[in-house]
Design a protein that fits this description.
This protein is an alpha/beta fold and 229 residues long. The chain has 2 domains: 3-89, Orthogonal Bundle (434 Repressor (Amino-terminal Domain)); 94-226, HprK N-terminal domain-like (Udp-n-acetylmuramoylalanyl-d-glutamate--2,6- Diaminopimelate Ligase, Chain: A, domain 1). It is 50% helix and 18% strand. It contains 12 helices and 6 strands. The chain has helices at residues 3-17, 21-31, 36-43, 47-55, 63-79, 83-92, 110-116, 140-146, 149-152, 173-181, 199-208, 219-226, and strands spanning 98-109, 119-123, 131-139, 162-167, 188-192, 212-215. Helix 2 crosses helix 4 (47-55). It is elongated.
């Protein structure tokens, strides 16, 4: 399967399965930096049609229309030298430390995310106003032993407005130190079944004002629930 096909499959799947397909179409259009007018020209429709789809004023598009929209966006990216697809390709070639990485169809609040994973906020409960646009589940041990500085950037996917879920945690010191020294910060950090949370990890979380969450739910249950968001 070519990169174009993989990208088209991902986009079409997200739009079709989304509870808010119009908002998901808009998300992808903005990722590709394409205006409603530009997309409408390729599809040979009025810009108001695109606007109506995105706002929900028009009935959700069928499979054929979704495919046309997806291929139009990819076609525009092709004329620009595949700027978006090249970024996507580097994201797909992920390190084994990244167990799962996903962008959310519709951004959700941190409390809703915490509820989905049966979590408990143990630091910075007052700083949960940011919305999450994605999440990444990371094997902490493999991350320490195998992630290069360049590959570390991949854990942020399309946006740093995401939750980083660390598994294989003992005390939680190493992940928090890595976040502390890196300029890019997540919106939320989750420790999956830590033995104990080190005081230093708590202090660093508070210094960065990043909500720190603990979840003791089975990892397969967490993954299953997150994929329904």
């Amino acid at each position: 399967m070519t990169m174009n096909d993989r990208m088209a499959e991902k986009m079409a799947g997200e739009i079709t399965l989304s509870r808010e397909p119009g908002q998901t179409i808009r998300k992808w259009r903005e990722i590709f930096s394409v205006s409603q007018t530009q997309l409408a020209e390729i599809l040979e429709v009025s810009p108001s049609v695109i606007s109506d789809y995105e706002s929900g004023r028009r009935k959700s598009p069928g499979t054929v229309t979704v495919q046309r929209i997806v291929h139009a966006l990819i076609k525009i990216d092709e004329t620009r030298g595949y700027r978006v697809l090249r970024t996507y390709q580097s994201m797909m070639e992920t390190n084994e430390a990244i167990i799962d990485i996903r962008e959310l169809f519709v951004p959700i609040t941190i409390p809703k995310f915490v509820e989905a994973i049966d979590g408990e906020i143990i630091a910075n409960e007052e700083n949960v106003e940011r919305e999450l646009k994605g999440y990444t589940i990371i094997d902490s041990v493999k991350a320490i032993t195998s992630l290069t500085a360049f590959e570390y950037m991949k854990i942020y996917g399309w946006s740093s407005e995401r939750a980083l879920v660390f598994t294989g945690i003992t005390y939680g010191r190493s992940p928090m130190v890595a976040i502390r020294v890196h300029p890019m910060k997540p919106a939320c950090i989750v420790y999956h079944r830590p033995e104990k949370v080190d005081d230093l990890a708590l202090r660093l979380a508070k210094t960065e004002s990043i909500p720190l969450v603990i979840s003791r739910a089975p990892l397969d249950k967490i993954t299953e629930r997150l994929r329904t968001l």
